[in-house]
Design a protein that fits this description.
It is built from eight helices and 14 strands. With 400 residues, the protein is α+β, with helices and mostly antiparallel strands. This is Flagellar hook-associated protein FlgL.
Length: 400
């Protein structure tokens, strides 16, 4: 059997070889021009698919970074506002201590009340702070309008109690600014654990000096009443009326019961009473309003002066606790800022890994590409020379 090698077949084979070499050379030229070795998905289907997935992962990291920047800005604004609010509470505390001194006149206390009123209004302005983009910091998710408003009965809160959770890295979330209800409303009274108050109808000169827990294991968080009799004796009863302690009051000595103690100064009258209970909550604005009420009193009797001192002492304790509450709120924001820094480090590490892997899939190795380009160029020139030589083949050359 013989195979016929025709001139047309030689021409077609040579042309196909030339076209293949030219196409390969053109591809290499495009790779060198773009710096990319994956020009189309058909160059490496698996690698191209992996590269698209990495592009999406990098885009997600960019979105996480934008989320983190937004939350960082809001938390930074919160930190600034709470720092100012803490400073105002500190100044109110100083004024309360000053007003509690016995050397001041009623006029002096009224002058202090003027400054306290200004500070209270400043606190309300801070509570309605915005983040610079028209959104209110302390409105929760209802941050399109001012969350706090003053009414005839006090300050009301119009926001909600939701704290946004924002994703700032894959499966890593950080809390947005605190809702105003947590910062300005739910503030513990007393020393933060227990509180004490004199009954409004007391007629003696008994004043609350100090109180606290001496044995937390015995304290049940109940409400206790200390009632005095004419001979300075007292009885401590719980909310159910059960007597838990008795004794004779000595000014300055502690009355101890159920793991708590209270020190009373002055002389309580027959029928006077004092209450000790677990600390409740009150909004900061109501606490300052109670202080203003105490500052504006005009006592003329020892009983009235004792009532004013009790009110001032209570306000001083509540404001000191509120100041600590502000510090705790700042600490909460600081923890979120620290989480943002950790997330940024995580994003940077993941981004670097993705970009390195993506570079290995897409980026061209110029040294290899140039060497291959030179090789393909030589092969093309050889094919062209071979084609020229093939064109000269003819039977006429043999018989001539």
């Amino acid at each position: 059997m013989s195979n016929r090698i025709s001139t047309g077949m030689l021409y077609q084979q040579s042309i196909s070889t030339l076209q293949s070499k030219q196409a390969q050379l053109a591809k290499l030229q495009q790779q060198l021009a773009t710096g990319q070795k994956l020009l189309t998905a058909k160059d490496d289907p698996v690698g191209a698919g992996a590269a698209v997935g990495m592009d999406r992962a990098l885009a997600a990291l960019e979105r996480f970074e934008a989320n983190g920047n937004t939350v960082r800005h809001r938390l930074g604004m919160q930190e600034s506002v709470l720092t100012q609010a803490g400073g105002m509470m500190g100044r109110i505390n100083e004024l309360t201590v000053q007003a509690n001194g016995g050397a001041l006149s009623d006029g002096d206390r009224k002058a202090i009340a003027i400054e306290v009123t200004s500070l209270r209004d400043g606190l309300l302005d801070l509570a309605n702070s915005t983040d610079g983009t028209g959104r209110y910091l302390f409105g929760g998710t209802q941050d399109g309008s001012a969350p706090f408003a003053r009414t005839g009965t006090g300050v009301i809160y119009g926001g909600d109690q939701t704290q946004r959770q924002v994703e700032i890295a894959p499966q890593m979330f950080v809390a947005d600014a605190l809702p105003g209800s947590e910062v300005f409303l739910r503030v513990r009274t007393g020393d933060g654990r227990i509180d004490a108050a004199a009954a409004a109808g007391n007629t003696g000169t008994g004043q609350i000096g100090s109180f606290g827990l001496v044995d937390s294991a015995q304290w049940d968080g109940g409400r206790y009443s200390i009632a005095f009799r004419a001979d300075a004796s007292y009885a401590v009863t719980d909310a159910g009326g059960t007597e838990v302690a008795t004794g004779v009051h000595v000014p300055g000595e502690a009355i101890t019961f159920a793991g708590a103690q209270i020190v009373l100064r002055g002389s309580p009258a027959d029928g006077d009473s004092f209450e000790v209970s677990a600390a409740g909550t009150r909004d900061i604005f109501a606490t300052v309003d109670r202080l203003l009420g105490a500052l504006q009193m005009n006592p003329t009797t020892d009983t009235q002066r004792a009532a004013q001192q009790n009110a001032l002492q209570s306000s001083m304790r509540d404001i000191a606790t509120a100041q600590e509450h502000m510090i705790d709120a700042r600490a909460s924001g600081g923890a979120q800022l620290s989480a943002l820094d950790n997330a940024a480090s995580l994003r940077d590490a993941q981004g670097l890994t993705l970009e390195t892997t993506l570079s290995g899939l897409r980026d061209l190795d110029y040294a290899d590409a140039i060497a291959l380009f030179d090789l393909e160029k030589v092969a093309l020139e050889a094919a062209q020379l071979s084609f020229v030589q093939m064109q000269r083949l003819s039977l006429f050359n043999l018989i001539r």
